[in-house]
Amino acid sequence: MTAYQVSETIVLKSPTPDDAPALFELVDTDRQTLRRWLPWTDDTETVADEAAFLRVCQRHMAHGELWLAVIWVDNRPAGMIDLHNIHDGQAEVGYWLGRVFQGRGVMTQCLETVEQIGFGTLRLRKLFLLAASANYASQGVAKRRRFQVEGRLRQQIPNGHGSYRDAVLFAKLASD
Predict the structure, then answer these.
(1) Is the pLDDT of residue 24 over 70?
(2) Environment class of residue 37 by beta-carbon count within 10 Å: exposed (0-12), middle (13-18) or buried (19+)?
(3) What global pTM score does this model have?
């Protein structure tokens, strides 16, 4: 299992299906909050759903199509962060964090580590980050890490009810 020490209290670890119960509990506890921004929330109804998701992720990781980590804070799962759609020297960043862990700089620190992995280990040249227009917390993470706004995408993110939200597209180059 690969682990990256982000800070004294934060560690990024490769996921395993054994993480499913704790991650599901975190999603289930924060379902109402997460549902607002993450359309997959309603598809994660059981621990088995979470375990199946983690197994699919492991396959994609084995083929170099995905880099994914569980965020651990004080030895408790706090959320996840990933690099997906990896191709042509670029990738998209995705992340979520349980409500109890928000507002403490956890995601900003994790994103810094993921940038080092993306630009260093994976030798990517560009990272994209998509945040819902009304998700100011997520946009704040991108801005604190000096991602640049590349544009606004209308009706980009499905909201799970047959409609879509506008999004802000951020990007950062390895040379930035």
Answers:
(1) yes
(2) middle
(3) 0.92
